[in-house]
Specification:
Elements: H1 2-13, E1 15-16, E2 21-22, E3 37-41, E4 49-56, E5 65-66, H2 72-81, H3 95-102, H4 110-120, E6 130-131, E7 133-135, E8 138-142, E9 147-153, E10 168-171, E11 175-178, E12 186-192, E13 199-201, E14 203-205, E15 211-219, E16 231-238, E17 249-253, E18 259-260, E19 270-272, E20 277-283, H5 284-290, E21 296-304, E22 322-330, E23 343-344, E24 348-353, E25 355-363, E26 373-378, E27 381-382, E28 385-387, E29 392-395, H6 398-403, E30 407-408, E31 411-412, E32 418-424, E33 430-436, E34 447-457, E35 463-475, E36 481-482, E37 485-490, H7 502-530
Parallel strand pairs: 3-11, 14-24, 25-37, 29-32
Antiparallel strand pairs: 1-10, 2-11, 3-8, 4-5, 4-6, 4-9, 7-8, 9-10, 12-13, 12-15, 15-21, 16-20, 16-22, 17-18, 17-21, 19-20, 22-23, 22-24, 25-32, 26-27, 26-31, 26-33, 28-29, 28-30, 33-34, 34-35, 35-36
């Protein structure tokens, strides 16, 4: 009878406390030592699974008993005092009593199994565990005796993108089990204004002073249910070309992508000014308490592109960009009840670009001209510039404009006629307007300018944001040409004033004087005749 009860126990408890499900049950325990084994299917080759025996059943005639060295008295006391298990073990005093309770399918739940395994883990270590052997995607536990075992994933996953399995309860035999070890994921994206589609990806481009938008998407593994505490933290490393953000906003979604509006959460940004980074931590168990359907979190923030940003000077194959890197640290050991986050996702990196407008002022014979005065405009507004030196200027930030030092709104060309404006965006129309020509030269007409770029593509068709393949510039309504330079030409010669200008007033004035003079002459002649 006791053997039949234990067979029922085996059938009832071949389950995963850590999302592991056994595939078979046995009506009797085999006594041959070479058949006492448990096989775990896991493709990760560097894990450590250790089996600890709870109940012993060495032959078909033996009664269910505690495994050697299990502190049964304190074990049962711990079961009786466990809050999850409640009063289920109040009348238990033997291994057979405990086996009967946990094999009662009517009154025993998955939560009870998880709690039982957690208590058992405290009392089995004195047994001396049996470590699994790995071969071709399978871990084999060659256990010594037939019986009921607690399998613990004792892998050191510190600073790895891997997680430990929660406790596994299983019966010895030719049993295959598959642990489902879940890990969160993180993807960082930057908003791109290319072609006006405002798409999200790995590459963006902006004008210095712009607020650049970022999105970080993180997922929540279903195995969180086996943890007492579960947190994860976004670590975001910005390049020195960005100001740290002041706030962020989070949105929550279920596994089908439906936005969940019932979750209340205000992300807190903890800044590190020393290395220009910040972190945002999430208590996932608290969030799931608000809504258990949360499967994905989207975190949005903006960071201003500042005067320290790297600027692409070359027209092709430049790598002067502003990278930003994010990763996630997370709880990855369900038996660890602390707030340690030993798991770490791979880095997710995006790249922001800003560009240079290379200008030259010359006459129609190709000679450089000094003394020309220009303004750069966007949407008919003059853009303030930070003067680096006589030839080089950069789009000024709001802070620099407020300080006023080295801020100009007009470029004056020097002897070589060369001027560079750094920090402009692509796909944006700028106007380069000459407000004063060199002496003896006519002013050039305003020039409309727009840059366009193309980025390196990976073999799988995705964009490699580290390098752009080409940069083109279009002037006025002309099609783009390779490069980022524009030449503004002045020509000598008299330029007649236009109708309605000061010149017509001169002509009218001179004409009026002639008419008046003719009238005076006519009157004088008539008087002379009378005399």
């Amino acid at each position: 009878m006791k053997m039949k009860k234990f067979a029922a126990l085996a059938a009832a408890t071949i389950m995963t406390v850590s999302a592991v499900a056994a595939t078979s049950a046995f009506s009797v325990f085999a006594t041959a030592e070479n058949t006492n084994r448990i096989v775990i299917t896991d493709e990760v080759a560097d894990k450590t699974y250790v089996a600890y025996q709870i109940f012993d059943q060495t032959s078909a005639t033996n009664a269910i008993d505690w495994a050697s060295d299990v502190d049964d008295t304190h074990f049962i006391e711990a079961l009786k005092s466990d809050m999850t298990l409640g009063s289920k073990f109040d009348n238990a005093s033997t291994a057979a009593d405990v086996a009967k309770i946990i094999s009662d399918k009517t009154n025993w739940t998955d939560e009870d199994t998880a709690a039982f395994a957690k208590v058992a883990a405290t009392f089995v270590y004195t047994n001396g565990g049996i470590t699994a052997e790995y071969s071709e995607g399978k871990y084999t536990l060659n256990v010594t005796n037939a019986g009921y075992y607690l399998i613990i994933d004792e892998t050191n996953n510190t600073n790895k993108d891997n997680a430990n399995s929660a406790y596994i309860l299983n019966v010895s035999g030719k049993t295959d089990v598959t642990p489902k070890v879940g890990q969160p994921t993180l993807t960082k994206e930057i908003k791109h204004n290319e072609n006006g589609d405002n798409g999200w990806g790995v590459v963006g481009d902006n004008q210095i002073g712009d607020d650049v938008e970022f999105r970080i998407t993180t997922t929540i593994p279903s195995e969180v249910q086996y943890y007492d505490t579960y947190t994860y933290t976004i670590h975001d490393q910005l390049s020195e070309g960005f100001d740290l953000p002041d706030n962020a906003e989070c949105f929550f979604y279920d596994k089908n992508g439906t936005k969940l509006t019932s979750v209340t959460f205000t992300p807190v940004i903890n800044k590190n000014q020393t290395d220009n980074s910040f972190v945002i931590q999430f208590n996932i168990k608290d969030l799931l308490a608000q809504n258990p359907d949360i499967a994905k979190i989207e975190t949005y923030y903006s960071a201003k592109l500042n005067g320290n940003a790297k600027v692409a000077d070359k027209a092709t194959n430049s790598t002067d960009n502003n990278p930003n890197t994010a990763y996630l640290t997370y709880s990855n050991n369900p038996k660890d009840e602390s707030d340690k986050e030993d798991g770490r996702t791979p880095d997710s990196k995006v790249y922001d670009w800003t560009f240079t407008l290379a200008g030259k002022k010359e006459d129609d014979k190709g000679n450089a001209l000094a003394g020309a005065k220009f303004q750069l405009k966007r949407d008919n507004k003059v853009i303030s510039l930070y003067k680096i030196d006589d030839n080089n200027f950069r789009i000024a930030t709001a802070k620099e404009i407020a300080d006023g030092d080295k801020i100009v709104d007009t470029i004056v060309t020097v002897a070589d006629g060369i001027f560079n404006i750094k920090g402009i965006d692509d796909t944006v129309e700028y106007t380069l307007e000459e407000i004063e020509a060199p002496a003896d030269y006519n002013k050039a007409a305003p020039t409309k300018i727009k840059l366009s770029t193309g980025y390196k593509q990976n073999t799988d068709g995705t964009t490699d944001g580290t390098t752009f393949n080409y940069l083109q510039i279009s002037q006025d309504d002309n099609s783009g040409v390779d490069g980022n330079g524009v030449t503004v030409v002045n020509r000598k010669g008299s330029e007649l004033p236009s109708t309605g200008g000061i010149g017509t007033q001169i002509f009218y004035g001179v004409g009026g004087a002639i008419v008046v003079g003719a009238g005076v002459l006519l009157i004088t002649k008539k008087r002379a005749k009378k005399d």
